[in-house]
Amino acid sequence: MREQIKSPTDRSWFFGDSVPSKRYINSKVPGISLSIYKVYGKEGHEALLYDDNRKILHYFEVKQGRNEKHPDLHYLRSNRFKYPKKVGAFDGKVHVRKIKHNVYEIIAEVTDNKYKLYLNIEESDDDLTHDLLSFDGASNLTKKMISSLKVNLDPEKNYFFKEYVKQYVPGSTFHVVNEAVKTEFTVTLPDTKRTRKLMSKFKD
Q1: If 160 and its partner were Cys, which of 26, 109, 128, 185 is the partner (CB 3.0–4.6 Å)?
Q2: Per residue, what are the HEC states of the chain?
């Protein structure tokens, strides 16, 4: 893991609007990310390693305090997942408008609903635009909005979503401010027959 995404919406390291977490993104393989989060009704924190290429989720218990430099992860289990065929499907229009330097408005229209995204971006050493924001139940829509934005950006540069506002119309509005800190962090999986089998089935 090379990039740690921290979203300091308060002193408890909240990511988004409600769940305290830290997120590590592998900038060399953006489809791999690690999220540390509070499980409601339980003490302590858990971690989820998300491998989109292999369609695998790895679960860990976090043993040490969240203020430590790197978490102490204790492996729990792994399982495969599949995207439901209908959930997240996108069939609509996307409009991108540049408001000012590095500030964009993106609007997706799907039937009677609108999804609005206001982004303040900045240049980055690595591409930090993957899996950092999403509209609930509409993963394909989010990907389409981000890909439409990238058409308007310099293809020779990498970017980071420094701040964004996402709005469901009709519905709620969420404001997130992010900070990126480069770090070196390795997650080790147990060497078992099951994990070797899961990890060997790589899909592009």
Answers
A1: 128
A2: CCEEEECCCCCCCEECCCEEEEEEECCCCCCEEEEEEECCCCCCEEEEEEECCCCEEEEEEECCCCCCCCCCEEEEEEEECCCCCCCCCCCCEEEEEEEECCEEEEEEEECCEEEEEEEEEEEECCCECCCCCCCCCCHHHHHHHHHHHHCCCCCCCEEEEEEEEEEEECCCEEEEECEEEECCCCCCCCCCHHHHHHHHCCCC
What distance in Å separates the CA atoms of residue 37 and residue 21, rounded to the nearest whole number? 4
Instruction: Provide the pLDDT for residue 1.
Output: 42
Contact predicate 28/7, CB 8 Å: no
Q: Where are the domains of the chain?
A: 3-84+182-200, 93-181
What tokens appear for 181 in the block? 């800190």
Tens digits of per-residue pLDDT, 60-87?
998 765 556 677 889 999 988 776 554 4
The pair of structure tokens assigned to 47 is: 């971690």
pTM for the whole thing?
A: 0.67
Q: How far is CA 94 from CA 80, 83, 154, 166, in A?
A: 32, 22, 19, 14
